[in-house]
Amino acid sequence: MTEEIIIAGFGGQGVLSMGKILAYSGIMQEQEVSWMPSYGPEMRGGTANVTVIVSDERISSPVLHFFDTAIILNQQSMDKFEKSVKAGGTLLYDPNGILKHPTRTDIQIYKIEGAKLASETGNTKVFNMIILGAYLKIKPIVKMENVIAGLKKSLPERYHKLIPQNEEAIKIGMNNIEKVK
């Protein structure tokens, strides 16, 4: 099993940390992983994306042009990466701020109202964990206990008290995903 993923959105949406948690989760399962971030000079509001590869085999290169899954969190990323999903692949997106919804017919398309759900929890910082939960519902490539271990590894110890909130956000994402095509 090899899963090649692009996660793309604005800086500040937790794109890079979502990718890091997914990569750490793969490591906890003794899989080969690659985590390659890309972001502009802006701290918040600029575009950011991360390529994550989780595999049972050695990874020859972290550089990808086509992906099994694209997780899209803004219109610029939709415009750039929708066409990069392999035929038969998966596109997951949050429709908040998306004006031109995906139109491809050769891929599976799902949406998750992550921004809305995070707002309803009263903690918008769990947005990325809601998105991660939706992804893991579609493609359970890592076990939940490894996601929690990945959270512990990627979060500074002073934030470990927030792990239960993050775990709940993952469950919210898993329970609120909608298949579009």
Structural description of this entry:
The chain starts with a strand and ends with a strand. The protein has a seven-stranded mixed sheet with strand order 2-3-1-4-5-6-7, with helices on both faces. It has one domain (2-179): Pyruvate-ferredoxin oxidoreductase, PFOR, domain III (Pyruvate-ferredoxin Oxidoreductase, domain 3, 3-Layer(aba) Sandwich). Helices cover 36% and strands 26% of the residues. The longest helix has 14 residues, at 15-28. Helix 1 (15-28) packs across helix 5 and helix 3 (114-121) crosses helix 4 (127-138). The mean pLDDT is 92. The chain is α/β, with parallel strands linked by helices and 181 residues long. It is built from six helices and seven strands, in the order E-H-E-E-E-H-E-E-H-H-H-H-E.
What top-tier CATH class fits best?
Alpha Beta
Question: Which range best describes the helical content: under 10%, 10-25%, 25-40%, 40-55%, 55-70% or over 70%?
Answer: 25-40%
Number of helices: 6
Major sheet strand order:
2-3-1-4-5-6-7
What summary fits the major beta sheet? 7 strands, mixed
Q: Whole-number average pLDDT?
A: 92
Number of strands: 7
Query: What is the radius of gyration?
Result: 15 Å
CATH fold label: Pyruvate-ferredoxin Oxidoreductase, domain 3
Overall shape:
globular
- The name of the CATH superfamily reads Pyruvate-ferredoxin oxidoreductase, PFOR, domain III
**Percent of sequence in beta strands:** 25-35%
Features:
single chain; 181 residues; alpha/beta; Pyruvate-ferredoxin Oxidoreductase, domain 3; seven-stranded mixed sheet; globular
